[in-house]
UniProtKB/TrEMBL annotation:
Protein name: Winged helix DNA-binding domain-containing protein
Classification via Pfam families: AlkZ-like
Species, as recorded: Actinokineospora diospyrosa
UniProt xrefs under PANTHER family: LMO0824 PROTEIN, WINGED HELIX DNA-BINDING DOMAIN-CONTAINING PROTEIN
UniProt entry keywords in alphabetical sequence: DNA-binding
MF GO annotations: DNA binding
InterPro entries documented for this protein: AlkZ-like
Length: 340
C-alpha cells in the first residue's frame, strides 16, 4: 500500500502526539519515508481532528467529514460527561457558530479561541467554551502541527475552511463497521464500540448477512468480512516496534489478543493523561515497551521487557530497532540498543 492507502485502510491513526502516526506507518509499510506522510499533511490529503473516542486521529481527507458526521454523538456525549449541566444556560449552536467563524478567519490554539469566546460568554471557563466548539464543529489541526520534527502548536480551523470542496454526508454505521473489520477483524460488536465510541452496534453487525462468524476461546461470536485474509494459525508474525497510541493496542474490548491483561497497566494506564506507550511485538503479542533517547552524536533505543524475551527473539528485535533508528535519527554517528 501507499501511505495514503494505509491511512484509509486503517480508518486513520490515533494522533494525540505528532510523531506516532509516522512510526505507525513505518511499522506497516515497505519503503516508507517520513517525508511521505509530511507531504500528505502539507498537501491536505490527510488531516488531524477529533474523531473516534473523541481523540485526535489522522485520517484521509475524504473520510474526515463523513466520519465526523457519524461520530458527532460520541463527541457530544464526551463533552456532556465533562461539563455536566454547566452549559445548559448557553445556546450551543450560537457558541459553535461564533467559534467557527473566528477560527475560519485565523487558525488559533484552543486557549486563544477560548479567550476570545470568553469576552462574549464571561461566566464560562474559556477552555470549556473552546471544547464546546470542538464538539459541535469539525476542527482541523493545521500544519506545522503534525509534521515530523516540528514543534508547532495545535492551531485549529474548520474543516470547511481547510477543505472547502468537502461536502459529504455522514458515513453510515454499516460502512464504518465493514471498514473496521477490514482493518481489525475478526471482532465482536463490543470491540467495534471500544474502537469507535459508538453504541448499539450489535444490530449493525447482525443485519449484514454476508459476514462470516467464528467463536473465540471464551465462546464469543467474532464477525469478519467474507473476503478477508485469514492466514494459517501457524504463520509466523515478524517482530514489530509499534507506535505510541497505536490502534492495534486500542481497537478491541478484548485486548488480550494482543496484550496480556497484566501488561496493560504499564502500557496503557501507567503513563498519565491517557498515554499509550510504544510497544514491542513478538509473534503478534506485546512483550515489552520501547523508547528512544538522543545525545549529540548517539541514538539509543531502550527496550523494557514485560515478559521474558528469549535470546532468539532479542536477535530478531535488534535489526528492527536499528532499522527504526536509521529512519528517525539518520544523522547519528552511532546507534545503541539497550535493555532496561
Amino acid at each position: 500500500m501507499s501511505p495514503l492507502e494505509a491511512v484509509r485502510h486503517l480508518v486513520g491513526l490515533q494522533a494525540q502526539a505528532p510523531n506516532p502516526p509516522y512510526i505507525g506507518l513505518w511499522s506497516r509499510l515497505a519503503d516508507f519515508a517520513l517525508a511521505d506522510l509530511a507531504d500528505l499533511l502539507s498537501s491536505r490529503q490527510v488531516v488531524r481532528l477529533a474523531l473516534m473516542r473523541s481523540t485526535i486521529h489522522l485520517v484521509d481527507s475524504r473520510d474526515a467529514e463523513p466520519l465526523r458526521g457519524l461520530l458527532a454523538p460520541v463527541l457530544v456525549r464526551g463533552f456532556r460527561a465533562t461539563v455536566g449541566r454547566a452549559f445548559d444556560d448557553v445556546d450551543h449552536d450560537e457558541v459553535a457558530a461564533v467559534g467557527a467563524g473566528i477560527v475560519a478567519e485565523e487558525p488559533l490554539t484552543a486557549a486563544e479561541l477560548g479567550r476570545r469566546l470568553a469576552v462574549r460568554w464571561p461566566n464560562h471557563e474559556p477552555d470549556r467554551l473552546a471544547a464546546l466548539v470542538r464538539t459541535q464543529v469539525g476542527l482541523v489541526q493545521v500544519p506545522p502541527r503534525g509534521l515530523w520534527g516540528s514543534s508547532g502548536q495545535a492551531k485549529h480551523t474548520t474543516l470547511a475552511a481547510w477543505l472547502p470542496e468537502t461536502n459529504a454526508a455522514a458515513m453510515s454505521p454499516d460502512t464504518v463497521i465493514r471498514r473496521y473489520l477490514a482493518a481489525f477483524g475478526p471482532a465482536t460488536p463490543a470491540d467495534a464500540q471500544m474502537w469507535s465510541g459508538l453504541t448499539g452496534l450489535r444490530e449493525v453487525f447482525e443485519r449484514q448477512a454476508d459476514l462470516v462468524t467464528f467463536r473465540d476461546e471464551a465462546d464469543r461470536v467474532l464477525y469478519d468480512l467474507p473476503e478477508a485474509p485469514r492466514p494459517d494459525p501457524d504463520t509466523p508474525a515478524p517482530v514489530r516496534l509499534v507506535a505510541a497510541f497505536d490502534n492495534l493496542i486500542l481497537s478491541h474490548a478484548d485486548r488480550s489478543r494482543v496484550i496480556a491483561d497484566e501488561h496493560r497497566k504499564p502500557v496503557i494506564m501507567g503513563t498519565g493523561n491517557g498515554n499509550v506507550r510504544p510497544t514491542v511485538l513478538v509473534d503478534g503479542v506485546v512483550v515489552g515497551m520501547w523508547g528512544t533517547q538522543r545525545t549529540k552524536r548517539t541514538a539509543v533505543l531502550t527496550i523494557t521487557p514485560l515478559a521474558k524475551i528469549s535470546a532468539k527473539d532479542r536477535r530478531a528485535i535488534e535489526p528492527e530497532a536499528r532499522r527504526l533508528l536509521a529512519v528517525t535519527d539518520p544523522d547519528a554517528d552511532t546507534v545503541e540498543i539497550h535493555y532496561a
